[in-house]
Design goal:
metal-binding; 13 strands; Metallophosphoesterase; 259 residues; 6 helices; seven-stranded mixed sheet; alpha/beta; six-stranded mixed sheet; Metallo-depent_PP-like; YmdB-like
């Protein structure tokens, strides 16, 4: 039997958490995933994560939370430093608190998860290609089932990493842009790929934020902090994977449920 994994796209603020409570139980009932993972770097107020919100998401059914460049809220760092089920990108330099990979164990199954951050249009971190390959080779000694969350801006960088890790991990799933792409595929050596899984939150905002504020920012070119809308229709975007005992993925399916 294949290992079933449900990966939920970037959860944005309180509306994203409400969407989780509304839609995730039905997906779990329908798909019976062995592991449920979500990117939660925007789950608290649209920016970052808190201990309380992390615990809320675990109670909602998540086995592990990944993240990205917004994970570094100062008040969250003590929890991140000790958390076993919250990841930050693995390619931050030595001294960054937290960890960038984990092995989940559940019902006799082991799933390796690697969190990486891109460098194009983002921070100049350690190379996600080299770090990702080294971690994949290490995890393969413990389990054939390995998923990579690549939190990156550039589609080219995401696609290149997918090809680079083909046959070395089970899936490379992109996050960060909050826009679900339609290019899911399985590469020749068995690695599933999706440029961006999308987001979970307000359906009719601008990547989960208020339309009016985003439009004003683009019109005036004056930077501002965008806020999460308080009300509105919600959506959950995710990807579902079935991974064979060889570590190769046999099925990848994009998902979207909404009000």
């Amino acid at each position: 039997m294949p290992v079933k994994v449900l990966f939920v796209g970037d959860i944005v603020g309180r509306p994203g958490r409400k969407a989780i409570n509304k839609f995730l139980p039905g997906l779990i009932k329908e798909l019976s995933p062995d592991f449920v993972i979500g990117n939660a770097e925007n789950a608290a107020g649209g920016y970052g994560l808190t201990e309380a919100v992390a615990l809320e998401l675990f109670n909602a059914g998540f086995d592990l939370l990944t993240s990205g460049n917004h994970i570094w809220r100062r008040e969250f760092l003590p929890y991140l430093a000790k958390a076993e089920r919250v990841l930050r990108p693995a390619n931050y330099p030595a001294g960054a608190v937290g960890k960038g990979y984990a092995i989940l164990e559940k019902n006799g199954l082991k799933l390796g998860v690697i969190n990486l951050e891109g460098r194009v249009f983002m921070r100049h971190l350690e190379c996600p290609f080299r770090v990702g390959l080294a971690l994949a080779e290490n995890l393969r000694e413990k389990t054939p089932y390995i998923l990579v969350d690549f939190h990156a801006e550039a589609t080219s960088e995401k696609l290149a990493l997918g090809w680079y890790l083909d046959g070395k991990v089970s899936a490379v799933i992109g996050t960060h842009t909050h826009v679900q792409t339609g290019d899911e595929r399985i590469f020749p050596n068995g690695t599933a790929y999706l440029t961006d899984v999308g987001m979970t939150g307000i359906r009719d905002g601008v990547i989960g934020m208020r339309q009016d504020q985003a439009i004003e920012m683009f019109l005036t070119q004056i930077p501002r902090k965008l806020e999460v809308p308080k009300t509105g229709p919600k959506k959950l975007e995710a990807v579902y994977l079935e991974i064979e005992d060889t570590g190769k993925t046999s099925l990848i399916k994009r998902l979207r449920v909404e009000d």
